[in-house]
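Hey, sorry to bother you again with one of my protein questions. A protein chain has come my way and I'm curious about its shape. I'm sending you its amino acid sequence along with the backbone structure tokens. I owe you a coffee for this, so here goes:
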Amino acid sequence: MGSEVEEEKVFDAEAASSMMEKLRESFSSGRTRSYEWRVTQLKNILRFCDEREQDIVDALRKDLSKPEFESIIYEIAMLKNSCKVALTELKHWMLPEKAKTSMTTYPSSAEIVSEPLGVVLIISAWNYPFLLSLDPVVGAISAGNAVVLKPSEISPASSSLLAKLIPEYLDSSSIKVVEGAVPETTALLEQKWEKIFYTGNGRVGRIVMAAAAKHLTPVVLELGGKCPAVVDSGIDLQIAVRRIMVGKWGCNNGQACISTDHIITTKDYAPKVVDALKHELEKFYGENPLESTDLSRIVNANHFARLTKFLDDDKVSGKIVHGGERDKGNLKISPTILLDVPRDSLIMNEEIFGPLLPILTVDKVEDSFDIINSGTKPLAAYLFTNNKKLKQQFVATVSAGGLVINDTTVHVNVLL
């Protein structure tokens, strides 16, 4: 016919190297170092959030069936807050810090001057594809770096939106978005970066670290874990279970790194915890939660199969005391409670990252601390109690990325 189909450009190591060369030229020019450039980019992210709010909500709905209210609060509002804090603090962050000198160098003076690292790579996650993509970008821009963002291919609508709109709002000579999957990520990791920021699981985290080690590149790994919630007796149980529920099913239907992975409570108190959860779940999500518009779906078929495997494990299949309903076609699993799950079961040896909530029982609540510390350090650990001594023991004994007493997940809103 004589017509030629234009081949889609492949992003390989050569393309990555070419992009890096241009970014290094941009960074070397000094454009990203100025206060004015940093402020302009941060303000443009805020403008992006305001002007494209509905586009962001729609993309999150396509990727995860994420409820609009949850998208606005946990993705857009939190990002805007990060931008506002950066704008408020930026001048202070950029000021040199005076350092003490000794008598041997008198009458000298000294100061610590913060400087940008250079060109940095941000590899984002799929569960909060907007916030976890742009929140690290806010930090990188505030520090005066050039940035490459690699959104997750598992949330394609959000990835596509970021690739389309970021060049419209941010300086495309210094801030790039690269879409793709394993080949594109591999091509990026072959380059020499001044820093790599990765959000995701430990398996890929090891790959990122191994690639970074070849160039002695510093790495920030934001990984998940099995975050426990210890529930003591003598508390307002309705308030406690509601707060657990918000941090579990209200956070992307359990697909959040700091959402409660499992509950630990005493054998005597466990039935009351189960009854309270059942009662409040029906209030929150109705008699048929699979039809609720307030619950996100499982992100894809692979993760649906992974969660189904947990439920079908012989060691736990008979432990379901509430929920367990599945809709494979719509990738939905109802909020599910499992009681007295064996510690050697599959569900207790992998991060759940979904709407399943096992309950482990102990003879006395203090025994839960030994259980937590015997496993991999959790990203967050929660305790519900009115016992002052138990609170002190929890803080002194349990090691985790963050500790919260009488609530869950709220610590991510505390800006240090």
About this structure: DSSP finds 13 helices and 16 strands in the chain. The first strand starts at residue 97 and ends at 99. The radius of gyration is 24 Å.
